[in-house]
Amino acid sequence: MATATATATWRYRGDPEGERPAALVRFANGRLERPEALHFTVYRNRDSAHPRKRHRRILVSETERLCYVGHNFGSQVMRCNSLCRYFVGVLDKSSGQMDVYNAEMFNMQPLLSDNVMPDDTKDYQTKSYREKMDLCIEAFGTSKQKRALSSRRMNAVGSDIVSTAVTKAAANVIDTKGVTGLMQDVAQDDVQNISAFLPPCHEDAQRPEHVYRFEDILSPAEYEALRVPAAALASITAEEMARRAEERSLCSFVLEELKFLPTDEKSRDHKARCLWFLDTLIKFSQQKVIKKKHPMGPECPHIISKKLMKNFTSLTYNNGSIQNLISASMKAKITAYAIALALHINNFQTDLTVLQNDLKLSESRILDIAKALRLKVSKAKGVPGLENDQSHKLGTLSLPLPTQKAPEGQRKRKKMN
Q1: Which of 24, 211, 228, 256 is at a distance of 20 to 30 A from 188, taking alpha carbons?
Q2: pLDDT value at residue 283
Q3: Are strands 314-318 and 376-379 parallel, antiparallel or unpaired?
Q4: Is residue 36 classed exposed, middle or buried when 0-12, 13-18 and 19+ CB atoms within 10 A define those classes?
């Protein structure tokens, strides 16, 4: 907090000739621009016989905007007065002699309102509940309540100053860059924010499968842990698949891909493991706050549960405890990894619309993530199982990778027929 110091001297009637006390003042809320323009008035207690009250002083200074009050007693007294002594020296330039006086340090606080009830009862009735409570605290509150009230009022004044400064700064930025430039900056920031949650991209790869390496999605230990839970998908029957589709216990993308499991045992087991982890990843994205130790159930391997909690949640503090939260940024990260895994499953061309429905995302959101992954997006035509649905979008990973561009602003809204 900024401070400013000034000196003031006074003499009381009845004080001994050799004792002319002086004051050193410090303003709690700012610096003095013209300290020589300030005038001070000092008040002392009338009970000069009382050993304590006779030393009590109140120092008042008034400027064009505020009135400041300082005390050498009570809760606002400065502790430095009891730890050391202060002196003020006054030099007489004509004689070259200096007079030294005892001094005290006063902390000048702004007096923001009169500590009296308004005479007009109509004005009092129009005040809010907070204002009425403030008046009660000023009149009857404890020292702690009064300090809290003063601090809150000073913070309110500071907030107004900060708000004015921010508004002025924003206006200057708009005048300098213009609205179009600011929108381009925001669009670029969106691309950078999404890119921070993508799988590692190897732009110098010679083959599509090396752009987003499978080991960056599932480590060898994690892949091995999927052997047991994925065995049920590898040996699934048509009846079991129909029952799962009716119960909706598997996502649509996985159900569609189970129809095309390879006959080769090794390839069949590999695809089953990928589909099991993709289904688990999509189901995990539907949660908000993770409260259980094993959120995906006891059948999920421990190493997979640990991977989900560590890589796809963010820590938050709520109600005195730390919780794992799937935020919007973590949802974007899950989507990016799900698309990358779907590319490995489908020979690096996947249906984004089916994943969009499973992940419960908007089309614009999943397309932004797909473009950040450097995919080429096209409409699905003649794809088996889609019944020539022209609204489906395909994402294809091919080399060379397209250059990453920031969106040119908001997309145009489709016209309603």
Answers
A1: 211
A2: 92
A3: unpaired
A4: exposed
